């Protein structure tokens, strides 16, 4: 069986390498590398958006939640769905703006300080997100080859693959690999669902084996716990730089909007299927190794609960989705360091060849930093919520204000980014945490950080001069 799984994973890696190598020849300029020459059609956009969003956060963190709490884990997914409904109206505006990164947007709408703080927030959040993709990929390799590859060695191997694939052709490589990965994952997960349901004894067997709370809207969560899953996910979706870069890469404003419709449908279907697979898996495998590490339930069910060929295909799809998300979230901060630091401040007249060399170097360095974080992280779910909160509180409010507020200004944006980042990073630090009332200290950082950011954005903007007309014009509907 290990040989079958090895062949499937090998074919996937080889296919992704071929896609990357075929796209390398088309990359000649900075725009080619960073935004695929702004040529991506709606079909490609749908799958690259879907693949960049559904990774370890859903396949590991979301599945772990579903294993423990049942369908109430969809609170995490629902945050993305709500965000997507709003994104439908943002996508054409983002394509019309047509820059390279979120810090480009922040400087145009606010000022240079907002750009620099935006780069810092993206680096904190996105290398954290990349790190737990490496953790998930390492776990899968260990499950398939338990006597050969340890989880830690698996992380090194995945990091090497991700760095190479991402560095080769940039956005063009990432986007077209995502088409292959998105199709594979969608088909295999949907096909696997009835097989696992049958193995769990059908729907009656599932409802009989699990607590009634697993099928309730809130489950065993309080409303506040549900919102602490929903809100960070929704705000990350609304401000997600990887998403905006895809919109900046779109062939047209129409392609950007059409892609969002496909993205909404695909995300709702796939995330519901992922939760259902984990719930059915919890019935089949209620104890043993997977109960100790429930984040591995999907991969474990593929290995032990499905026919060999389908199980290998599902394992390969999970592996590929994790790699795809790692590619996206590694590439995104690398573009920040190149576009928002190197080109903006160090070498504004750099040739395309020099920019491409530095871009690939940044991918390698940030990949190594993400691997370091992965080796020291204890919980995928905790790391996921931390990364989501940094980005959600620090950047999403000022990004949305750029498109929908004529009063938000540079001073308000800078103070909001700084406040959101500070509260998130230091929320659990003793000098803050030990002086808070117990009822506040036990909560996650999302609501305090978001409140601090919004308060600064509104109050400081109202207390200072409004933005100039030329700052607002590029974002008008």
Automatic annotation (TrEMBL):
Protein name as annotated: Sodium:solute symporter family protein
Family, similarity comment: Belongs to the sodium:solute symporter (SSF) (TC 2.A.21) family.
Membrane topology: Multi-pass membrane protein
Major localization class: membrane
InterPro entries, sorted: Na/Glc_symporter_sf, Na/solute_symporter, Sodium:Solute_Symporter
Keywords for this protein: Membrane, Transmembrane, Transmembrane helix, Transport
Gene3D superfamilies: Sodium/glucose cotransporter (1.20.1730.10)
Transmembrane segments: 6-24, 36-54, 74-91, 112-134, 140-168, 180-201, 221-239, 260-285, 297-320, 354-372, 384-404, 411-433, 445-463
GO molecular function: transmembrane transporter activity
């Amino acid at each position: 069986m290990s040989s079958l799984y090895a062949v499937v994973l090998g074919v996937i890696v080889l296919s992704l390498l071929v896609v990357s190598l075929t796209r390398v020849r088309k990359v000649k300029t900075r725009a080619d590398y960073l935004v695929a020459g702004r040529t991506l059609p709606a079909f490609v956009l749908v799958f690259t958006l879907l693949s960049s969003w559904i990774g370890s956060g859903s396949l590991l963190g979301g599945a772990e939640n579903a294993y423990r709490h049942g369908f109430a884990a969809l609170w995490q997914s629902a945050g993305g769905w709500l965000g997507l409904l709003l994104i439908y109206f943002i996508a054409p505006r983002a394509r019309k703006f047509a820059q390279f990164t979120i810090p480009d947007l922040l400087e145009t709408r606010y000022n240079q300080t907002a750009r620099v703080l935006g780069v810092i927030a993206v680096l904190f959040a996105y290398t954290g997100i990349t790190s737990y993709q490496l953790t998930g990929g390492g776990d899968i390799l260990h499950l398939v080859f338990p006597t050969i590859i340890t989880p830690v060695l698996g992380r090194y191997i995945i990091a090497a693959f991700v760095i190479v694939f991402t560095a080769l052709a940039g956005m063009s490589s990432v986007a077209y690999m995502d088409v292959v990965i998105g199709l594979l994952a969608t088909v295999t997960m949907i096909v696997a669902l009835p097989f696992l349901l049958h193995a769990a004894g059908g729907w009656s067997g599932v409802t009989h084996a699990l607590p009634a709370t697993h099928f309730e809207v809130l489950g065993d969560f309080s409303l506040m716990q549900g919102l602490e899953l929903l809100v960070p996910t929704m705000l990350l979706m609304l401000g997600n730089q990887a998403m905006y870069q895809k919109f900046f890469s779109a062939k047209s404003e129409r392609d950007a909007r059409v892609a969002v419709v496909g993205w909404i449908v695909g995300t709702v279907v796939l995330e519901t299927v992922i939760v259902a697979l984990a719930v059915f898996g919890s019935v089949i495998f209620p104890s043993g190794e997977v109960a100790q590490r429930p984040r591995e339930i999907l991969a474990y069910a593929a290995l032990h609960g499905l026919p060999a060929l389908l199980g290998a295909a599902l394992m390969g799809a999970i592996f590929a989705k994790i790699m795809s998300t790692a590619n996206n979230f590694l590439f995104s901060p690398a573009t920040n360091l190149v576009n928002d630091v190197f080109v903006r401040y160090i070498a504004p007249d750099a040739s395309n060849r020099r920019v491409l060399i530095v871009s690939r170097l940044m991918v390698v360095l940030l990949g190594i930093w993400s691997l370091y974080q992965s080796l020291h992280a204890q919980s995928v779910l905790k790391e996921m919520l931390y990364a989501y909160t940094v980005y959600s509180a620090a950047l999403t409010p000022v990004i949305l204000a750029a498109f929908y507020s004529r009063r938000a200004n540079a001073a308000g944006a800078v103070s909001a980014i700084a406040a959101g980042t500070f509260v998130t990073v230091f929320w659990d630090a003793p000098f803050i945490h030990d002086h808070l009332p117990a009822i506040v200290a036990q909560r996650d950082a999302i609501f305090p950080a978001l409140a601090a950011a919004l308060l600064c954005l509104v109050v400081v903007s109202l207390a200072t001069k409004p933005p100039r007309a030329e700052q607002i014009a590029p974002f008008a509907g």
